User: Fold these one by one.
Assistant:
Number 1:
Amino acid sequence: MQVALFIIFGLLAVAGALNLLYQRHPINSALSLIVVMMSLAVLYFSLGAEFLAAAQVIVYSGAVMVLFVFVIMLLNAGEEVHTRGSKMAYIAGIPGTTAIFCILTFVFLKQRNALGATHLRDSLSGTSSNITEVSHQLFTSLLLPFEVTSILILVAILGAVVLARRES
Amino acid sequence: MSHLSSIQIFLLLTIVKVAVVLVITLTAVAYTVLVERKLLGRMQNRWGPSRVGPFGLLQPLADGIKLFMKEDMMPLAVERPLFVLAPIIALGCALISIAVVPFSNQTLVTVGGTTVDIGQIANLNIGLLVILGITSIGVYGIALSGWSSNNKYSLFGSLRASAQLISYELALGLSLVGVVLRAGSLSLRDIVTSQSAHGALSWNVFGGFQFIAFFIYLMAAYAETNRAPFDLPEAESELVAGYHTEYSSMKFAMFFMAEYANMITVACVATLMFFGGADSPFGHLFDHFGNGLIAGFLFGAMWFVLKVFFFILIYIWVRATVPRFRYDQLMKFGWTFLLPVAMVNILATALALAFIAP
């Protein structure tokens, strides 16, 4: 069951990512990105990280991508145009990304024990609630990064307010 | 059934459950429309639909046949794939969220060695987040329909709808946090159980002191479902029909059904979060009256349906009496009133739980 889900949604994620690059119109690319994010959410869910899956859907597909789509709709962005620079990007980019992908895969596979790899249905799909676990970690061992992040977000909100108010 | 493995039986039973709930929800959607038309009629001193069948009871059927038989027009300038996809997303998202709603007490039925709960399709321990997540995905249906129609009224309608949804979703989510804090869980079943001690007295809206959260939720929910007084996205007087201007026949019907299915979902969530879900308002006073397995299930379902119906009546009542907001008023109300009040409510609930503690 888990393997079937992984294969289906893994392939869907890769197909969505490729479609994102292939599509000319920004709104189609944005929609492909949503497909990728939803497939990732299903993968998290099948690994037993339900809270992460829900957060992925709510934050990324629900909020960030709505904003993307919103901006594309408001600006009525047209199809992308190809210039000489984009041809260069093709020539340099495809081998480049392949190389980076290979290196990353190699590093992750080589160092998986150091990175804390677990086997499927080992520690993640425990019976205890994910949310309890996550919040416990957040408010004990990760308290400082958590608070610093919230201050960062607060600063960002204040910055947005200042920028929005400047004109009037 | 001995030749089936337990996972196959489980799958079959789940499919049956899904089919039954889907049929009931769609019927409820159709009859909500009828109830709305009848009640609006009475409130405006007229009859409402009364010709098709006794008391107009077959009107939804006639409407369905009419919409199905209509010509499906598609303007030439539309973005075809997205134009077709948008109503499917809208209706799909509206119907999916009903899957995590516990509509009756936990009733375990064993068939061929496999036990399923017929009071709910899926009991997830993040049930509430699933509903919120699916609602936020539903925005795409509206946003894409307006954009792909290639029509200025549609675009305005969908921009308004998406902006409104994003703004009010914050207040809506925050208003539910108080309840989650009290229950200590995001599972809808646990939230219902946390309110079941003394009947109506321990419901979150009364005994849980979450009435402020309840009113915030109610107002945000009206905005979320694009209903009056927040029905700016489909304001007839300025926008023709809003985001579904270019849609006809079944595609229009799908948007229509999605709106009413969303109303029902929102009413279900209000029932679960604030009014004790399938619990009787009398608590355990009459437990000896229906203590069989099936009787308990039916009583639970009855209370749940009654509560949901009550919320739908409030919806219709508000629609018939309150005039539409202006757009800037709507945004100001959401951001500068509902959101801060919801935050204060969370703070107060958290402090009360920490210091007064049960």
Number 2:
Amino acid sequence: MVPVSFYILLSAILFIIGTLGVLIRRNSIVVFMAVELMLNAANLAFVAYANQYQLLSGQVFVFFVITVAAAEVAVGLALIVAIFRNKKSIDVDQLSSLKG
Amino acid sequence: MNPTLIFFLILAAVSVAAALGLLFSRSAVYAALFLVLNFITVAIFYLLLNAPFLALAQVTIYAGAIMVLFLFVIMLLGTKKLRRDEQIAWQRPLAISLAAVLLVEIGVLIFGQARRGALLAEIGPDFGSPQAVGEVLFNQYLLPFEITSVLLLVGMIGAIVLTSDSRD
């Protein structure tokens, strides 16, 4: 049996790679995918602890996270498409219209 | 080393490699495919962790539906325009050092905490089955479930409104 701390460490590594993706990449679709990676890493931690403590609530929570991620992807990608229509670019450095 | 641990380590290496592939690939399409690979390895971890229902939901919803949506949008916007990856000079080292700090902090927290809390040995055969998850979902978490449906409706309306041309 694999110790739960291994899963948590893997989840932390995946989460941090996702964070790095958000910080480093300029393409907003890739940034968005990195956010999905972070959500997924958090889900892995939930399932690992659900297994550790034998509580199904952790798995149900992952279910909710997946649902929220689906809604988030629908709205987020719609936003990206709308921004691309207006600005002809989805580079996050170019989106500075709100800067004073 | 028992076989499960070896399997876990190999799969973890694949998972981290796929995540790094997402981080460093130049093309958005390759990044999406790396992310699909990562989602599938995480689904196998769910199977190892006695969550078969979630593993299948992960493959169908995440690797299936969500990533297809991503690929559609990438195709829609054209991959050629996505290639340019300009950097602000100080951004990358700062991001990497911040990530290293975060990793060390999480490592200290995990290995400080993990000593207590022994592993529970036996798990019933129907732990994580669709029936068991459904019972918890529809009894204990009925209200959040209903709220989720409203959230999905709002997400759908939002996507339609945001992408409709009639605004401008």
